[in-house]
Specification:
This protein has 8 helices and 10 strands. It has 226 residues and is of the alpha/beta class. Strands 1, 2, 3, 5, 6, 7, 8 and 9 form an 8-stranded mixed β-sheet that branches. The chain has a two-stranded antiparallel sheet with strand order 4-10.
Length: 226
């Protein structure tokens, strides 16, 4: 069963998704790389109405703002492409980025503005990409983005993943000269590993008790590192 969440901003959406995982997640036996693990999981469909609005950054990230900026640069600019990884998300999607922009410039109303990252045998390799599809649709005068993850670590990866993919959304909209519309973030398997159950519970307690200034950072805060 899909858990559908609608939130105004990314910051609020992150909290709502992690709360849903903590409260509604089904405990299931799954593979975790080369071993069997127990996960708590849901199928997530998260709609963000105003992805450029504040609060945009949840402090429930495994790094600081400098680390988040580094991750954004890796995703957007490929600064980690030559660091010895078998692949990076940037390396996978950037091969088709110019074609994507060209298609949207050809016809802003196209239904073909889609990049599939998991092509060929890579999905059946020992380390298949979690991010599978990046899609764009021009609706009601704004560019909407749909991001589809095969599998998404809801505690340690998700808050950074959604931020970086939204930065790509904004980059494409700016290149086309059109307003940014809603973000649709889908994770077929949105999960927490057993070792992170306590961390997830702790985050959710903070979401419910702490003031917003402790829970969120702003894009202005991040800019000094970008």
């Amino acid at each position: 069963m899909v858990t559908y969440i609608k939130a105004k901003t990314i910051g609020y959406g992150i909290e709502a998704a992690m709360k849903a995982l903590n409260e509604e997640g089904i405990v299931q036996e799954r593979e975790n790389q080369d071993r069997v693990d127990v996960t708590k999981e849901i199928q997530l469909c998260l709609d963000i109405e105003e992805p450029t609005a504040e609060p945009a950054i949840s402090r429930s990230i495994v790094t600081d703002l400098k680390g988040l900026a580094k991750y954004d640069h890796e995703f957007l600019d490929g600064t980690g492409d030559n660091d010895g990884w078998e692949y990076t998300y940037h390396a996978l999607y950037s091969r088709f980025y110019d074609q994507l922009i060209g298609e949207l410039k050809r016809n802003i109303h196209t239904r073909r503005a889609c990049i599939a990252l998991g092509q060929g045998d890579i999905n059946f390799s020992p380390d298949p990409p979690c991010l599978q599809l990046i899609l764009f649709n021009y609706v009601n005068g704004k560019l909407e983005s749909t991001i589809i993850f095969r599998s998404n670590d809801g505690v340690k990866a998700f808050p950074m993943n959604i931020h970086a993919t939204e930065m790509l959304h904004q980059k494409v909209a700016e290149e086309l000269g059109v307003p940014v519309g809603p973000l649709h973030y889908i994770a077929n398997n949105f999960h927490a590993y057993s070792k992170d159950f306590h961390t997830l519970e702790s985050y959710c307690k903070v979401f419910s008790t702490a003031p917003e200034k402790r829970r969120f950072a702003s894009m202005e805060d991040l800019k000094e590192f970008l």
